[in-house]
Amino acid sequence: MKSFKQLKTVLLAVTFVWCSLSLVQAEKPKSKAITVPKILSVSHQLQKSNPPSLVLDVVGEVPTGGYTDVILERTVYVKPPEDGIQDYYLKAKPPTGIAITVISEVKASDVWTDLPAWVKGVRVHGEKDGIQVVYFDQEREMEPVRRTFAGTSSKGSFDEALSAALAKLNQELGEGGVADATSTWKVVRTSGQTGGIAGLNQLKVVISAERQPPWQKKQSRKQKRHVKPVGKIQSTRELKTSER
What we know:
- The chain is built from 3 helices and 12 strands.
- It has 244 residues and is α+β, with helices and mostly antiparallel strands.
- Among the domains are: 34-140; 147-172 and 181-212, Dodecin subunit-like (2-Layer Sandwich), CATH 3.30.1660.
- Residues 1-26 form the signal peptide.
């Protein structure tokens, strides 16, 4: 009987300790999302639709590993900004425990369907450094992205020259990691050289192609601008956002 009481006491003690540990575990504070320190790159694509959609990809830099729940937060305005630039904040939750002290990258994307006509660009914020502004022209960027490819034949063969041009097209179909891209193309120019002592018989064929999904347009220097903030960033706009 005494042994049974002792066993019962031990079991109760173990249960109490387990419940206490569980309570501590449950009450352990969770990390809150913060704006990442630095923005490394911003890329975008306007997808052809009516109205168009904006696909935005952002890469940021954090001081350690272990950051989770990375999001790209789009600012909601009471009224659209006069300059037509949409603000974004790249946020992530820092680690709560021990983390690798190695500078790391975090990535997030945002797909904005039914993009308003007033949007002329985006401004992606980092907490300390690397704010980046990207300008774009919806009307211009909605134009089909076409690329030209040329093939030649030293035998004057149209089929051989066309095959060479199509081979170059096929090499670029998978650009950007697209595995199932298709294309439409047409011959836009043919030219050649014949005669001479060497007996030239060269034929050149140039094709123009459009990929589905579209190739991403390359940004010019005028479209992309890097801005380094001095001190704390402030905005005079009327904003309606969650606490930062």
